Amino acid sequence: MTFNQLIYIMKNLKGILAGILLFTSLMSWSQKATDIANEKSEFWENVRFGGGIQLSIGNGYTTIGVSPSAIYEISDKFATGVGVSYLYSRYKLQDLTYNVYGVSALALYNPIKEIQLSIEFEELSVNQKIGEDTSSYWLPALYIGAAYSMGRRAAIGMRYDVLYDEQKSIYDSAFTPFIRVYF
What we know:
There is one protein chain. This protein starts with a helix and ends with a strand. The model has no long low-confidence stretch (mean pLDDT 85). It folds into two domains: 1-45; 48-182, Porin (Beta Barrel). Strands 1-2-3-4-5-6-7-8 form an eight-stranded antiparallel β-barrel. It has one helix spanning 3-45; strands spanning 47-58, 61-73, 78-91, 96-112, 115-130, 133-150, 154-161, 175-182. The protein is of the alpha+beta class.
């Protein structure tokens, strides 16, 4: 083997090694990207979106509310999530109007398939107008609830606000019935 043949082989070997290194790096990066994509899709497979709507129309009052939320199912028994809410109420006889905005965090526990226990903290910004007088205040609520669970998608039950303040609350009672639906 001559010196020129050796240099020729080394040059080609260098190119071949560079090609192998580049190919291996790309395959490794591609595998990592696939793993990350799979982790993201696994995360989103455990996320459920839903919430509730409220509509109440009667003699002299109107209440309309929406409260979208999302939960992450940690396991078959535990889920946690967040939500936002908006509520509009008007009582004509008292010339009273509420605009309420809020955020919440909740945790759900199913000790058995049919029973769902919950705890939810909600912070509301209440804008109240009585006649020409307006006021704004913050209203916290801490709900403890129990519900009949209809699988992973829906539950119907009752919750109790342990921080209920009769003077500030926008609700007539510390007890509130609810229906939760998630898709």
